[in-house]
Design goal:
Elements lengths: L2 E5 L4 H11 L3 E4 L13 E5 L8 E4 L2 E5 L4 H6 L7 H5 L5 H6 L2 H6 L7 H8 L2 E5 L3 E5 H4 L13 E8 L5 E8 L9 E10 L2 E11 L2 E5 L1 H7 L9 H8 L13 H23 L3
Helix pairs in contact: 8-9, 9-10
The chain binds flavin-adenine dinucleotide.
Length: 278
């Protein structure tokens, strides 16, 4: 990877104009940590970290997160119903968390990226500044490589994440060989319990199935079930039977499938416990 030149714009308008003009010869640079994994030469980097797109604000029951908020900020922030610290603390090393941003983690996804999995489970809303401001629900945004949605000059500006409320729960687990290692399996779940029944459920899986996605067949099996009589092991086996499990770091695909099922059961158990107020 070789960068030919840097542009350091002072506001969103200037950054978008520079990126539009550069077209394929330019790219938005947030933390810049992914350049390590990409092959290209002769491009101009447009720094997007000074455009006022950082910070976390709670508005009602929603956390509004600026796109270039760093993983360190996500890890250190505290607020009622905030759960992304659980994701950030298990992502990379502190040096990388200090410079790597939320938008860099979710606009161009590598299979090991952790935040798309959590944002799918939390049903986040993503804001892209294009000609207008376009809004995407996480499921649509992550249906393929999100970069497909961006034209030259378009920038992700904000991510809205609902706070976890009473009667709701969030579970998260990332399996890696060592703490700062790449994920072999990442699972996140959101559950809402009402009158003893599972009213809303979202389960997302990453790393062990390629690009992250929702386990919708499993969600359908779980929806409306009475939480106290759930046989999670059986339902998870049935609901994930058709997922394309992919082994990493020496694991066979079969081993990955078994690991995935065990983690999904654990993560769902954690989400349900929180939703039940245990
Ligand atoms: C050794 C190492 C290990 C890692 N391990 C993990 C891991 O286990 N789990 C994990 O989740 N991550 C991990 N990461 C981080 C991950 O791989 C990416 O490097 C990181 O998420 C990129 O964030 P960034 O802010 O540096 O983005 P950049 O590298 O600056 O940008 C990434 C891409 O997103 C685009 N982009 C960024 N922001 C915007 C925006 N606002 N609008 C439009 N486009 C934008 C850029 O143009 C670029 O294409 C690791 C990184 C390293 C170096």
């Amino acid at each position: 990877m070789k960068i030919d030149a840097f542009i350091i714009p002072e506001d969103l308008h200037e950054a978008r104009a520079a990126l539009k003009k550069l077209g394929a010869k330019g790219f938005a640079m947030a933390g810049g940590t992914s350049l390590h994994f990409l092959e290209f030469t002769g491009k101009t980097a447009v720094d997007i970290t000074r455009l006022g797109l950082s910070g976390i604000k709670k508005s009602g029951a929603t956390f509004k997160i600026g796109a270039t908020t760093t993983l360190d900020e996500l890890m250190s922030y505290r607020g009622e119903g905030w759960v992304l610290d659980q994701v950030a603390v298990n992502t990379c090393t502190q040096q990388i968390r200090n410079i790597s941003t939320l938008s860099g983690n979710i606009v161009r996804i590598f299979p090991w990226n952790d935040f798309p999995v959590a944002l799918l489970a939390l049903n986040a809303t993503l804001h892209i500044q294009s000609k207008d401001e376009d809004e995407y629900e996480a499921e649509e945004f992550f249906k393929g490589q999100p970069l497909r949605l961006f034209k030259p000059g378009d920038l992700l500006t904000r991510v809205d994440v609902p706070a976890i409320k009473k009667g709701q729960g969030f579970g998260y687990h990332k399996e890696a060989r060592v703490h700062a290692g790449f994920s072999m399996m990442t699972v996140a779940a959101f559950a809402e319990v009402k009158n003893g029944k599972l009213k809303k459920i979202r389960v997302a899986i990453g790393a062990g199935i390629g690009l992250p996605s929702r386990a919708t067949a499993l969600e359908e099996l779980l929806e409306d079930q009475a939480v106290d009589t759930l046989d999670l092991t059986e339902l998870v086996a049935k609901g994930t039977a058709k997922l394309p499990w992919k082994g990493k770091e020496g694991m066979s695909n079969e081993y990955a499938g078994h690991l995935g099922r065990v983690i999904v059961v654990d993560v769902l158990t954690a989400a349900l416990r929180q939703a039940k107020g245990e």
